Amino acid sequence: MTTSTYILLGISLLVRVLVSCAARERDGFTDATPFVVCFSLVLAGIIHLGDPLEIYGLNMPSLLKCPWTTLISLWTIAFVIGRVANFLILRPTAGFRKMVDTGHASPGGVYLSLKDYPKPYGMILGLPMICSQTFMEEFIFRGLSVSLGKRLLGSLGVSTRLTGLLSITGSSILFGLIHFVPAFCCLRGKSIGIPLYALIMPTTLGMVFCALNQATCSLWPGWIAHFGLNYAGFVWDRIFGTWETHGLR
After folding, report:
1. How far apart (Å, rounded) are the C-alpha atoms in residues 142 and 44?
2. What is d(CA 104, CA 245) in angstroms, rounded to the nearest whole number?
3. How far apart are the first and last CA of the chain?
4. 164: how many CB neighbours lie within 10 A of its CB?
5. Domain ranges of the chain
6. For the segment 201-235, what is each residue's pLDDT rounded down to a tens digit?
């Protein structure tokens, strides 16, 4: 039941490896995502003693049962908020251009890996690369973290209802901090708006993704919504040259 998902992941990771090899020769950039994804899958298989994708509902029957109307509505709202926030926060001033030039402000690894590719090719390659990137984040933060959190709290005698709430809240805050800390360290004394957005938006979306996943007993909803948002933002920035306007070379 999960063969198709493994094939999808395999193709997306293969593309990442090929692009990473080219980027390493050019910029010395190494993409650790393939290793992290494989390690996470093996770890989950050992912990749960079974097919990790099956355990987390990443099979075809679960995909067909996704709440598509809810996902489309969530994507629309989050995408609009993201574009408005980017317009308000990422202003093409001389100061911000300097931050981009020094690497203190960045569009992310996928964008940087593909920035020298022609736009059509870059957007095609971005599909599998963002697919595996968002899978990694969803599997770790909405899958493993929540599952292990429930086990730990359950072993301490915490009620089942409170266990679920605390696990979801904790994994979502951790997801927000993973985005916040690098932004805060890079932009300390330069900008507080970007780090705050990097904390609030991922944390909020993490809570929503967890709720959707729990309702469907599957990681598909969070993965689909996360992929849709990241890829749409990537395509938007590629088409309009958003980061190039900010000084990215």
Report:
1. 13
2. 16
3. 44
4. 18
5. 66-245
6. 999 999 999 999 999 999 999 999 999 999 999 99
Query: Which own/partner contact pairs does 27-35 have at CB distance under 8 Å and 24+ positions apart?
Result: 27/112, 29/109, 29/112, 29/113, 31/109, 31/113, 33/132, 33/133, 33/136, 34/132
- Tokens coding 104: 């203190």
Query: What 8-state DSSP symbol labels residue 239?
Result: H
Q: What is the pLDDT of residues 4-59, one digit of tens each?
A: 999 999 999 999 999 988 776 666 667 889 999 999 999 999 999 999 999 999 99
Q: How far is CA 70 from CA 16, 84, 227, 240, in A?
A: 30, 21, 15, 28
In this predicted model, what pLDDT tens digit does every residue of 162-196 receive, in sequence order? Answer: 999 999 999 999 999 999 998 888 877 777 888 89
Q: How big is the CA angle at 212 (ends 211 and 218), to the nearest 5 degrees?
A: 115
Looking from the CA of 91 toward its CB, the CA atoms found within 13 Å total: 8
Is it the case that residue 243 has pLDDT exceeding 90?
no
- The pTM of the full predicted model, rounded to 2 decimals, is 0.94
Q: Of the candidates 130, 144, 158, which has an alpha carbon nearest to the alpha carbon of residue 213? A: 144
| Residue 52, C-beta contacts closer than 8 angstroms, at least 6 positions apart | 41, 44, 45, 139, 143
Q: Which residues, other chains included, contact 171 with Cβ-Cβ below 8 Å and sequence gap of 6+?
A: 141, 142, 145, 146, 149, 206, 210
Output the DSSP codes for 170-213: HHHHHHHHHHHHHHHHHHTTT-SHHHHHHHHHHHHHHHHHHHHH
d(CA 194, CA 99): 12
